[in-house]
Amino acid sequence: MKSNESNYWINRVHNKLKNIYYIICYFLLASSLFSIEMTDFGKEIVKSLPKEILKKRIAVLKFEVPDSEKDSNLAKILSGEILLHLNKNGVSVYERDDLSLILNEKQLSQVGIITQEDKTLYETKQINYLITGTVFRIDDSKIRVLSKIIDVTNLSILSTYETIIQHYKSGDNKVTYHSHDGFFFNIQFPGFGSQTTNASGISGFDSVELEGTPMNISIKYGISLNKLFILSFNKNGTFLTEPNIKTDPNILIENKLTDKGIIISSYGLGMTFYTESNSFGSVSISVANAIYSNKYKKTKINNGFGFGFSLGKEWWVSDNWAIGPSVTFLYSNINLTDIDVSFKTTDGIITDNNFNISNIAYILAFSATYN
Predict the structure, then answer these.
(1) What is the domain count for the chain?
(2) pLDDT band at 287 (very low <50, low <70, confident <90, very high)
(3) Within a domain: residue 25?
(4) Confidence class of residue 299 from pLDDT cuts 50, 70 and 90?
(5) Same structural domain, 150 and 182
(6) What is the pLDDT of residues 130-184, one digit of tens each?
(7) CATH number of the domain where residue 112 is located
(8) Which site in 7, 68, 83, 88 is 20 to 30 Å from 95, CA atoms measured?
């Protein structure tokens, strides 16, 4: 008998995990259809620079766009990407509009040295090296960038760097890698933590409390309204099987709901906020359902509400995928009606079919986001 009960629960868990696996595979497949190839341009340029250059003063010149005026915004963005990553590496970096300004600074500095009078207001900003380049459009969705590193002292080209950036359409004004824009998908799984369910209104008891370690999965999909704010549809499931039980008065024969479990399912709207460092916070409000099950049947109750919030931090691992840890708080309140729940007590079996449950869960999970 015991062996049959164990096999029953093993099969239940196996089927749940299999369903979750199919959901994950589906969304990974769907997201791959949206995925684009985009070089991390600024980071790659900085990585290509010799270490001795990084100790000097560097200027970044706006890239030239000879083929199409529609890509003029991109030229500014590319130089901005290089400036950003040079600053992150602690390099003395400056932005210049054209080469003539740099040459004029150099000439004034040389005159100042000869006459022992500095003709420049900012001698410390004299440039040692210059990064610039040219943007060529290959087709409607692909561009070629030829970058040059120039030694200002003797006006020689030290090196060139060629980059192909794909899926950049004519007229676009932003690069969409490592950025929260467009389609948004997030999954937090596996999630584990603690859950407490308090039942009130059960005849014969002042209070009933269930405790256990649930398994949780949370899925969000939606759209980015800007780089830091996302509106999404959220789906959440918390699975608690054979929880411990405490009551007041303590008249239960067993302190565990053997062969029984409760699933709290919710769906609703959520908002996620990201910081520049890719930390995030999200809030949601939802309709909550409870599924009470034993080894014979399941009963679903559809009259509850819930809310939750989570905090986390993610790191980009590809152009569009970021992963990291998250912590989540979940609350739901559901009125259980037309469901017979029985408790074995020292006074006999107590059964009730109309009471209220409130659920609180704290979840630590792995978070993966596609944008």
Answers:
(1) 2
(2) very high
(3) no
(4) confident
(5) no
(6) 888 888 877 766 778 888 888 877 778 888 878 777 645 444 444 455 678 788 9
(7) 3.40.50
(8) 68
Query: For residue 106, is it within any domain?
Result: yes
Return the pLDDT at 279. Answer: 92
Same domain, 215 and 351: yes
Residue written as tokens 């708080």?
329
| pLDDT above 50 (res 192) | yes
- For position 331, what pLDDT does the model report? 96
Task: Assess whether 57 and 145 both reside in one domain.
Answer: yes
pTM above 0.85, yes or no: no
Q: How confident is the model at residue 196 (pLDDT cuts 50, 70, 90)?
A: very high
CA distances 82 to 174, 254, 316, Å, are 15, 66, 18
**20 lies in some domain:** no
Q: Which of 134, 166, 198 marks a domain boundary?
A: 166
Domain presence at residue 332: yes
